[in-house]
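The material for today's practical consists of a large collection of protein records. There is nothing in a record beyond a sequence line and a structure line. Backbone structure tokens are a discrete shorthand for how the chain folds in space. Nothing more is needed to start thinking about how sequence determines fold. As an example, a complete record with its sequence and its structure tokens follows.
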Amino acid sequence: MPLKIYIFILLFCIQICCSQQTASVWYDTDNGLPQNSVKDITKDKYGFIWMSTENGLVRYDGYNFVTFNHLNLKNNRFSFFFGNAEKDSIYNLTAYSENTTLISKRNVSILQKKNHCIKKVLSESRSYSVFMKNGVLEEIDLKKFFIYFNKNSYYHLSNDGTIQYKHKNIATIKGLPKDFILDTFCLGENIFIISKALKKIVKITSEKITYTDAPDIFFQNDVKVYWSQINNQSFIIQDRILYKIVYENNAVSLKKLAAYDLKKNSLSSIYHDEANNKLYLGTLSDGLNVIKFNNFHVVNKSDKSYDNIFYSLLPFGTDKVITSSGDVYSENGLEKQYHFSTTSRYFLLYDDQKNIIIQNDFSLLRFLNNVNYSGKEKLYFGKTASCLWNMNNYYVIAFHTASLSTQLAFYKDASFKNPFLQLSIPNIVTSVQEYGQNKWLVGTRDALYSVETPNFTLKKVSEKSLNVREIVKTNDGSFWIMTQGNGFFLYKNKELIKMPEDKDGYLLFSHTILEDKKGFFWISTNNGLFQVLKNNLLNYSRDRKSSVYYYRYSKEDGFNTNEFNGGCSPSSAILQNGSFVFPSIKGLVFFDPKKIKSYYPQNFFMERVVFYDSKSNIQENTINLENNFYKALILVDVPYYANRVNLVIEAKLKGSKNEKWEKVNSDGKYYITNLEPGKYQLIIRVLASPTGKYIYKTLNIDVKYLFYQTLLFKFFVILILSLILLKLIKLRIRRQELKKRELEKIIETRTQKLLKTVSKLEYTKEQLRKESVQQKKLLETISHDIITPIKYLSIAAKKLYETDEHDHYIQKKHFESFYKSSIEFYNFVKTLKEYAEIYNVSEKKETYNIYEVIESKKTLFEGAAKEQNTQIINHVKNPTYSQINQNVVAVIIHNLIDNAIKNTTNGTIELSTIEDDSIFFLEVRDTGKGMSQEQMTYYEKLQKNIENEKLILQKYSLGLHLILQLLMMINGKIDFKNNNPYGTIVSIKIKKQKYG
């Protein structure tokens, strides 16, 4: 092939490659960089962009810049990258080779152990200039260079043209300039040297040196070469154009990338990210320039804003569109003008003969296809045709009225004569679409209607007010209703199904839909162009649950504005070459949907956490937080270089009160606050495809317990509380048992008291009974015995009365008899009185001194005893206390002393007592005349059966009867025996009564 033809073809290829539009963004110390000298740029295996600066290494993920300049290095002035990114081993040397750093696993560290690459590079750098990158502004001082590919492939180059491979000479290239290294680049393990003298490129391999042809641009004097070994990329700059060098099929070619002015910007590093269609340009003083290549093409009519507002358009030819004014555009700009004299830019259409019909006041103008649209014909209606639609077999014209209603006229052909159907619509009609035989959907500014045969009545479909922009019928026969402010709907089975909104609500103002061959819908709106899988929408229409994922394109992707135009007919076009065209308020947007790439993350990382206290930390996959932590910021690093509005990051904190997926901002910042102590799982997911596939990653979060919040402490607290509760229950039970026992004891005591009371009452009852019997017997005896003394007194008184008053002897004898009877009667009554007093004796137990009682009785009878010349002796010890009823004892002692005095003359009466816990013993000894055996027998017999024996008060002393009665009352016993040589011993034995 002749060289000229080859160069022509290559230049043509360069021009084709150059057709992309670009967008440029600059970064410097004001918006992310630590320093403005970007010496080198590369990309690691994880997708992060790395930059080498004079103040540290910088990692870039498309949004965040992370600077590494706190590594305790001797200096932070870094140079070029080398190594192998795919093997996760990227190296960089600081100034003067003082330190070697390793970039691996998305982090930077000081290299501790040098491998073969580092050892070789450092060793050769003593004698050779290590050539792994050249900059377009560099000047070369050294004469020998070392190129290292791997331990089995490295070269030495000298400026005299000598080439060595692994220390063995391959050849010496003649005719190379001394600074030939500036025209040297490498691709793969091949070295290429541009020979401007030979107009050839010298290719050096381990086996041989060959010469190859190349485009003439390589040999221009102003060509500057840039090469990066780690990126395996080479570029040239010529005439302010940056080209990428491509080596394929043993041929060297160029791909035009962008315009670049070396005089304006001091270029020092280049990296082309083909996967994300971006170009990174590092400068020595101006920072970083990121150029994005866009596959959207925006064309304008002129520099005037008004001229660049577009509405309705039609496909025209293979790759063009035509507007209602007759202007023809391709993606390269305005191609031709037919100068249609239209009065409305809102509609135009082809008839069946490919003639173009537009509006002109009260008429329609038809520009004829057979004369290349140079001729026209006028169709007069007498009123303005606001819109016109071609329904395949017929045409529909909308005539808007001043009353904001619409008359629809249906015509069988493009002659527009005699409409076969006319309908009156009570609003401004914006769109009409046939959805069956003699069935139409009619969209207005207020509602969606349906019209059907046979009556052609208007039926309202939408329940609420709906401003319909366009009714779109897609390839599968589905009808989509686009609205102004209400989103878009699917009309299915006579039902409107509202589609989900995007997160910002931009789809509320939807204009139209175009469907590509991959099953995507392209929806133009007032704020961006949206891409969505049709199947996602249809799935949602079936279950109302399926997720729908929208991808938005905006000015960042190459538009002049985010506002597209709708409300016109047609509002988009599909060209024969497959390109789509949408009108906007700042130009026509052309693009081939096959070439438009939607970007989704391939991976993400959660390794950086900002703590707001000194003790919290992250270890491997676990975040350890203090109990009283303020907050923690988890940074989700996502290498993503497209529009971040399409980056979907969601988080769910398992173990928390709200385990729901929540949106994370596109900056990747997720805050954790107000977590109770415990273990949690933070699950982060990132949308990785339009079908809804997510990438998931998990971090463990451990919020430290205070000692009193630990499970063990709580267990012990519960255990202690349980034991305390058990103890309290036991104490309660014990207390209840004690109360029960006390109650039982009280009951028992009261029962005993009651029993005693009952016993006492029974005893008292018995005593009362006995007393009653004794009293009865006593009364009988008294009644019987008192008759005799009274009779004697009566007889004596009678005899005394009958005696002669002068017979003093008889009177005296009768007076003596009367006296004796009176004395006897007195004694009898006196004894009877004492007997009666025993029933007034108190039963109250009181402690008293028996000695004093005996002494009081001794004093009482002392006079009577003297008359009898008898002495009363008290042998009772003073004091001697007793609780035996004092009155009863006193009566007994009284009667015993009385009886003893009566029967003792010129003698003694001795009293003594003995008392213990159960017995009271009283003894009275006298030296009187004593008691007969008959008396003793009587009293003993009476004592044994006092209830039944007859009382003989006249014959026997009433006093002893009293004593017997009292002893019966107090459970006592009396014994009689003779006192030698004279007298009687009376012993009283009283058992102390116990009731119960």
